[in-house]
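pinging the channel bc i need a second pair of eyes. not urgent but kinda urgent?? the chain im working w is below, pasted from the shared doc
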Amino acid sequence: MKNLLPEASAAGTDGGSRGPERRALLCVEGGAMTTAKALSIAGSDSGGGAGIQADLKTFQMLGVYGMTAVTAVTVQNTRGVFGYHPVPPEMIAAQIDAVAEDLGVDAAKTGMLATAAIIEAVADRIRERRIAPLVVDPVMVAKGGALLLEEDAREALIRKLLPLAAVVTPNLPEAEVLTGLEIRSREDMIEAAKRIVGMGAGAAVVKGGHFPGEPLDILFDGRAVVEFPGTRVHTRHTHGTGCTFSAAIAAELAKGSTLLDAVSVAKAFVSAAIEEAPGIGGGHGPTNHWAYVRRRGSMDIF
């Protein structure tokens, strides 16, 4: 990770042994045992590589108790998305209420929201329940090209949900839709991140995996710009990487990590997951959600 401004604290992208991911699932605070809890508000992936399935795997591997509010049921595997059925907005709102009033939420993330009505219902419950910090992954298109967000829902996403977000995590096509920019360079990525923060979000991470060459992610938090370079892995098995990245950020924020540390861990987590993908399925296969923890020999976080 390259620190571009002096006020941004330095942190390694390898998730060093002193990092926040080493905190235990059960920790002592004031003599009482507490559990970090994260809520995924997203769609269900029947293939298990993305959506709430990827989120729950990520939460678990980072030592956080995972909860869900299912927004849509999809019919998909590694070859594509063959259909989906949105959950009624009132049922999604009820799921959020049920979790928040009993278990409590230390951090939340959103994924596939599909319709304007769902976005409005989710935003309403996030505000009413004062759920924070919120990570918004603005899911619009599946890896295979299927549209997962209706055209008229994009404006609702910008107006209703982005102002509630601690951080937004778009890939390049999503950042282009949100900002209206044509993103062709590092400077364009920085400008896109700044525009998203200008829409009310606390911060933005614009992911550069769609660019040729070595991948670069850029974080802007309203003050500092920080670069997270990576190494390109030549593989088709990248299904669910956006879901996993945003879930890892939410997990670390739930444990009390700073945003900079959370993004550092998320970058390392996804990189390991891609590098050790299991290679299953005939299309865009899933990544390996246990690779990061296994690679580090850090199962003691549990």
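so The chain is about 35% helix and 20% strand. and The radius of gyration is 18 Å. — does that match what u expected or am i reading it wrong
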